[in-house]
Amino acid sequence: MSKMTSGSTRLTVVSLPIGRIAAETPFRRRCQEGYTLVETMISSVILALAILSSMGVLSQCATYIADMRLRSRSAQILQQQIENMRLLSWTSLQSLPSTFSDPTDTNNMYTGAISSSTYQSYGTTATVLRVTVQATWTNMHNRVMTNSMTSLFSQGGINYAY
User: Fold this and answer.
1) pTM of this prediction?
2) Which region, left, alpha or beta, applies to residue 148 given φ > 0 means left and ψ of -120 to 50 means alpha?
């Protein structure tokens, strides 16, 4: 090590072996502290698996929600059919058709069936009818699903007393 003085400025020169200087440069230290190609590839594979599994879960959730919408719509159709029957006369209730269709179902996704039976009678005359309305459709998994509602209708209406 030698020191040179010129005026008021001091300059210090340090002599080190060439291999040692190259090994301790800041650039070389940064390279040694980085990630290797194998580490990067492994983390990429783990990230890809996490993203793919998340996409699978999202797909299943979307299918489940679509199935729940179909079931909810079938309940609305059944409720509307029951409400329409409440407006019918007793004679019309006794001669209900065995099938129905919803006029708002433009895709013809739902098919409907109606069955009625005598719930209570007075002698040979039926006084209360049990009417079951059933909707059938195919869900997103291509399975045939059904939903049904049953209601009682009396000959004299709700407030009829014997």
Assistant:
1) 0.66
2) beta
Q: 145: which residues sit within 8 A by CB, 6+ positions away?
A: 70, 71, 74, 136, 137, 138, 139
pLDDT of 5 strictly over 60: no
- What is the number of domains present in the chain? 1
Tell how far CA 100 is from the center of its chain.
29
- Distance from the Cα of residue 118 to its chain's centroid: 41
What's the CA angle centered on 70, arms 67 and 74, to 5 degrees?
140
**In which domain, by residue range, is 62 found?**
32-154
Residue 91 token pair: 């004679």
Please check whether residue 8 lies inside any domain of the structure: no
Q: Is residue 23 part of a domain?
A: no
Judged against a pLDDT cut of 60, whether residue 112 lies above it is answered with yes
Q: Is there a domain that residue 42 lies in?
A: yes
